[in-house]
Design brief:
The protein is α/β, with parallel strands linked by helices. The chain has seven helices and eight strands, in the order H-E-H-E-E-H-H-E-H-E-E-E-H-E-H. It has a six-stranded mixed sheet with strand order 3-2-1-4-5-8, sandwiched between helices. The chain has a two-stranded antiparallel ribbon with strand order 6-7. A hairpin with a 3-residue loop joins strand 2 and strand 3. It is globular, with a radius of gyration of 15 Å.
Length: 197
């Protein structure tokens, strides 16, 4: 029932934050050349495709979250911010903090959405706390699971996509979950997210 409501809103009225997982596991090479690079490229394509007055911001997260760009209508600033995301050496994947900081950026926006790109390996923060936070703040979270179930190799072993937390986060906040095991699926996810924002 939550979904139909959002479709009736004028599509350009959503303000959203693109939250990019920059934890070490995003160096995995199951997406070529690696998950992070593909995520950045697809995010930039998405930003390029948006209408001129779209309002968005960018954060990157691992064990801590960085605001790469505050909410703006300036697409070139957003693209520059996405290009500047690099692997964050602080261990962990704290999605709670990523959502919390994204909400801070969206505080004064009318219709809030977060597009969270991650391999889903949440090891800091509790998924139910994140869902609660999203609901209290009336934010829709679309999650894109980056990586393959078989996994890709990283410096310290194999990193596999953990879909369950990302699915729970999306479905319980009125958002959608997309699986991106390759570049095409990632681009397709953004094409499907566009009308929802």
């Amino acid at each position: 029932s939550g979904i139909t409501l959002h479709r009736e809103i004028d599509v350009s009225s959503f303000s959203f934050v693109i939250a990019i997982d920059a934890s070490r596991s995003m160096e995995a090479t199951d997406l070529k050349p690696n998950r992070l690079l593909v995520a950045k490229e697809a995010s930039i394509d998405f930003v390029d495709s948006l209408s001129i007055n779209s309002r968005l911001g960018v954060v990157s997260f691992a064990g801590n979250t960085y605001i790469q760009e505050d909410i703006t209508e300036d697409k070139s600033s957003i693209i520059r911010a996405i290009n500047n995301v690099e692997i964050n050496e602080y261990g962990g994947t704290d999605i709670f903090e990523a959502v919390s900081i994204s909400l801070g950026l969206l505080k004064f926006e009318e219709n809030k959405a977060i597009i969270l790109l991650s391999d889903g390996q949440v090891n800091v923060g509790n998924i139910y706390e994140i869902i609660e936070l999203a609901r209290e703040n009336n934010v829709v979270i679309h999650t894109v699971g980056i990586g393959t179930i078989e996994g890709g190799s990283i410096v310290y072993g194999i990193s596999k996509l953990d879909e369950e937390s990302l699915k729970a986060l999306a479905y319980n906040s009125g958002g959608e979950f997309f699986k991106a095991g390759d570049r095409e699926e990632l681009l397709q996810a953004f094409i499907e997210i566009a009308p929802l924002t």
